[in-house]
Structure formats: C-alpha cells, structure tokens
Specification:
single chain; alpha+beta; Arc Repressor Mutant, subunit A; SH3 type barrels; four-stranded antiparallel beta sheet; 10 helices; 12 strands
C-alpha cells in the first residue's frame, strides 16, 4: 500500500499529464520522467495501466497524444475526474442495485465506461433497503421521529426513534438514533415498516464529534474517553502510521521500526478486535485491566481448539 504522500504525487502527476494531453500536447516518456523525478517505467505504467484504458490516448513517434477531437469537457477539473473514478469503485464495492444505479448516475457526468482505479472493499449490499434509506434520510434532514419495527436476537418489536445518522463501520450499515433521550445503534437491515411521524425532535451537534472520534460501532456516549497504550512491532507500526486510528497519537518511534502509541476509546470493544487481528504484532501496554480481558479471551479460545 502506498503512503499518502506517494498517492498525492501520483494524483498530481496524472492530473498534469491529462491536462497537457487535453490541451493538445504530445508528451514523451523520458521528458516526463525527468520532469517528475521518477523512472521511465513509472511513467510508462501511468499510461499503460491508468490512462490508456480510460482515454483515447495513443503513441506516435514515441510521443503520447490525445485523439483528435476528444476533450474532457463534462467536468471542470481533472482532479474531479480521478476522484469520480475512486467513487465509482467504492460504489462497485457495495454491489447490487446500489452499484447499478450508482454507475448510471456517474455515467451522466463521465465520458468513459472503464476506470483506471480499482478498489477492494467489503461493504454489505443494502440495495434492497433503498426505500427505507430514503425515509431515514428525510427523517434525519427534517428531524422527525419515526415509528418502525426492529429485529434483535430473533425477536421483533415496535419502537419510536429519532434517527441522527446513517453510518458504516467495518462494512456494515447502522442507524444511530435517539430513543428515550439516549443514543442507540440499530443494524440497518433489521429496521423495517418505517413510518414518518409529524413529531419534531431536537438534537445538538455532539453526535458529529462523537462519531468523528469513534473507532467502531461499539462507542459509548456515556463513558468518558480513556487512554489505551499500545506497542506495535515494525510490521504493525508501518500500518498504523499509514492509517492511524481516529484518536491515535504516537508516543515514541524507535530505531528498530517499532512504535508506541496511545488511543482514546469509550468501550473496550473498540480496540480488542483490532489487537486480536494483529496478534502477535500488536499488544496492549496499559491499562492492566484491559490486558487481563485480552488474556482471558485468548485462553478461552485456546481451550476450545
């Protein structure tokens, strides 16, 4: 996986190349490599793997050109074009009718049918819940209570909630809502029979900050955030430097590539699954009570195998 600054450089390079081709220039690989400070192989990959499949670009007398008469006109900026490619691949990752409808919508503002961007996302398909999502969006925007049915542990019950946000954690969709003045989380696919009411509810802006600092759906509104100190070996440290957790702060970077860092959480399940995923490359330093929970979970697992 490329570092963010590497991605930014690639995005800038592709944008400049496309803009210059769009302006009618003929571009040589060697000259571009010298200009951007990269290898000729990198520039050749830019054309062969990222551009040729999506644009009418061809090579003539060792110069790359845009086909006569073609212009990138439907969008104002090349950056927008590349970002739309990324959005399209995220839509593909959701799948189902959602992806089909999303691609149709994107095709209205894009010229090509194929994209040079590929992503692998594990996001559940909610295309069968489009009607319910539309109702939820209306309720959230207009701050209206809804009546609905919810299935929990094989039991279905009726309830009235104040929906605040539709959120996605780890590929799964949830509705964050108020019920009896408390923040609750509902698995979106288990919500049904949604009906808008005329009852208006009030909400402050703390939910945005709460979601911003949350790591998973396990966040707890009523628990004061507490610190967890972790040690990452070289392999794990590389990952957590590239993709830091929402509340992460690095305490020390060591010469051997290892790292100690701190995160703030409101529920132990925000961090325990992450540590278990990274065993043996990541472990908890403190608090001790969280280490004890981790040890008990591992021992229970070992006893069952």
């Amino acid at each position: 996986m490329a570092y963010k600054h590497d991605y930014d450089k690639t995005l800038t390079r592709l944008r400049v190349i496309l803009q210059r081709l769009n302006d009618g220039e003929a571009l040589g690989v060697k000259e571009l490599a010298d200009e951007f400070g990269v290898s000729t192989r990198t520039i050749q990959r830019d054309f062969n793997e990222k551009l040729v499949s999506s644009y009418p670009i061809f090579q003539e007398n060792k110069k790359w050109k845009m086909q006569d008469g073609f212009r990138i006109e439907k969008i104002r900026d090349i950056d927008d074009k590349i970002i739309l490619d990324i959005i399209e691949k995220i839509t593909d990752g959701i799948g189902g009718n959602f992806a089909i409808k999303g691609k149709k919508l994107l095709s209205k503002i894009k010229n090509e049918e194929q994209s040079p961007i590929y992503t692998k996302l594990n996001i559940e398909d909610i295309s069968d819940k489009i009607y319910e999502i539309n109702l939820l969006e209306t309720a959230i925007k207009e701050k209206k209570e809804i009546k609905c049915q919810y299935k929990y542990k094989d039991e279905r019950y009726e309830t009235t909630i104040c929906p605040l946000k539709i959120v996605n954690y780890e590929g799964f969709w949830y509705v964050v809502a108020l019920r009896d003045g408390e923040v609750r989380k509902y698995y979106l696919k288990e919500l049904s029979s949604i009906k808008l009411t005329n009852t208006i509810f009030e909400v402050d802006n703390t939910i945005d900050e709460l979601l911003k600092n949350s790591i998973s759906i396990w966040f707890n509104q009523y628990q004061e955030p507490y610190e967890v100190k972790l040690f990452a070996n070289k392999s794990a440290a590389t990952y957590f430097k590239r993709r830091p957790l929402p509340t992460q702060s690095i305490e020390s970077l060591n010469e051997d590539g290892t790292m100690e860092f701190i995160i703030k959480i409101t529920h132990e399940m925000e961090i325990l699954p992450i540590v278990k995923y990274w065993i043996p490359h990541l472990h908890i330093i403190e608090p001790l009570w969280l280490i004890d929970i981790m040890k008990n979970d591992i021992q229970e697992y070992i006893q069952k195998i």
